Known about the structure:
The complex is a heterodimer of chains A (about 280) and B (about 290).
Chain A: E1 3-14, E2 40-51, E3 55-59, H1 66-73, E4 81-87, E5 92-94, H2 100-109, E6 111-114, H3 118-121, H4 128-138, H5 144-157, H6 174-186, E7 192-196, H7 204-221, E8 224-229, H8 232-238, E9 241-246, E10 249-255, H9 256-261, H10 266-275
Parallel strand pairs in A: 3-8, 3-9, 6-7, 7-8
Antiparallel strand pairs in A: 1-2, 1-4, 4-5, 9-10
Helix pairs in contact in A: 4-5, 4-6, 5-6
Chain B: H1 12-27, E1 33-34, H2 48-57, E2 63-68, H3 75-87, E3 92-93, E4 102-106, E5 119-123, H4 137-145, H5 150-163, E6 174-176, E7 181-182, E8 201-206, E9 211-215, E10 221-223, E11 256-260, E12 266-270, H6 273-288
Parallel strand pairs in B: 2-3, 2-4, 4-5, 5-8
Antiparallel strand pairs in B: 1-9, 6-7, 6-10, 8-9, 11-12
Helix pairs in contact in B: 1-2
Amino acid sequence: MRKILEVRNLSKIYGKGCPRCIESTGPEADTNMCPHCGSVVAIHDVSFDLHEGEILGLMGESGSGKSTVVKNLYFDQTPTSGSARFIEEDAKHEMFNLNAAQQRRLRNQRFGMVYQNPHLGLNFGISSGGNIAERLLMSDVSHYGEIRERAKELLSRTEVLLSRMDESPAAFSGGMQQRVQIAKALATNPPLLYLDEVTTGLDLSVQARILDLILEIQQERNTAMIVVTHDLGVIRLLTGRALVMKYGRVIESGLTDQILEDPQHAYTQRLVASAL
Amino acid sequence: MSVTYNFGFMDEHAKKEVRRSILKAISIPGYQVPYSSREMPMGRGFGTGGLQITLSLIGADETLKVIDQGSDDSVNAVNLRQFVELTCPGVNTTTHLNEATLIQSRHRIPEVPLTPNQTLVLQVPYPDPLVVVEPSEDKRKVMHGEADYARLLVKLYEDIVKFDEITISHRYPTRINGHYVIDPSPIPRWDVPKLHNSPALILFGAGREKKIYAVPPHTKAEPLAFDDVPFRVESFNDAQGNRRPCERCGATDSFLDEYINEDGSKRYQCSDSDYCDTVLAETKEAANA
Lengths: 276, 289
């Protein structure tokens, strides 16, 4: 399997930061806010690799920094330090050294993002088909018929009724909105997909169908995914490998089965015990 | 007490600043150059942007024509022309396009093609085409810099989905020289192709929004469209598919205005009054000969 993403020592600090920030935050210090300068160490020293077609889970309680990792990798935020390398068949990109236009190109054409809140990922002022068209137009498809066909294909793949493709996502249920978001993320057939709490807030039967859909897509297209969730069920069902985060640090990583069946860190043991 | 104004109403430093902005606008075709729009003795929104460009460029050897929606006789055109006559002694004004060297216009480009010796100044209410899709000016500037116009095309897509055609009637977003997309002021679609490879310099002035931009001579101007849904101008065909002529001069190659008669029937007449007069005079001459 080919490696597509290599993240090394990723850190993000909100606030001005001080030399004692790192030593006085983290799981041992039981906080992510530096008592000396008040800065928040959202993530520190996060490193991992991701291979083609692999699903990696990021788990942890809220505030542990798992969403921040994904936001940095999707260029929604700029990290304080660290590097990430995105590897294509014929090119390597040092993601944080690229200029804004190059970052936008990667974001629009190579990555897909599905947010917990559809309002972040979709434009509610335009139709569902228009949302997909937007992503295709960003990657320089300029043929109306082609865009329309592709939007239809994607929406039917994600089981959105085609008769409703020209309605605004505002008229849809939460589960439908999430399907439109997934269709939009898939529009350019990206090799890497970020899923940030995609099923949180949906009822259980809808959750199950969305998770099935994600697995099917991963099988069909060999898409690599990073799944952010606090739901151990989602981690167990989707991911092969997982990182457990607390106060911005990775405290445990490995095969998902191993982590869930034989957790090593005290926090992970509590997490698993409370869920099962 | 008599007050004497500087030639061209604005002081020389103000004119110089406007001219400098114009030079920058010409150097970067389609880029909106910010400038310090001055107070004019009329409300912003009444053509102060175009007027400041005109006053900065005008000299005693210029002949000025002022057009408002194609007409030389409407209030806005007459007032602006009188203001220039008042503040620029010695400047000639005209209503005939072929005599004019400087043309200030609101919402129309003349029917007869411009010549290399002419400069067209258009009055602009909203200079930024992206304002309909992005409210933050900071973000719009980044979008312009990166030529990120996908969201404008999404608007076209939505139009075709809803109405089977692009319904933008005026202010049609147009890409200049392959990069910046401009709002070509509220000219009808009919006039947009005239921007492309125009032999004359075309300047745009937005007084309230404090922006100047330009389409230099012989520069590409492409209206945004899809490969399979091309840009098209207004059709003036009647129900039978015949091109409606102007009811005054009989021209069949001009942009027509629709008027409602007192009995409720419609009549169509050239929007460009100078063109209509010229065609009328030519037909009379031909009839007499």
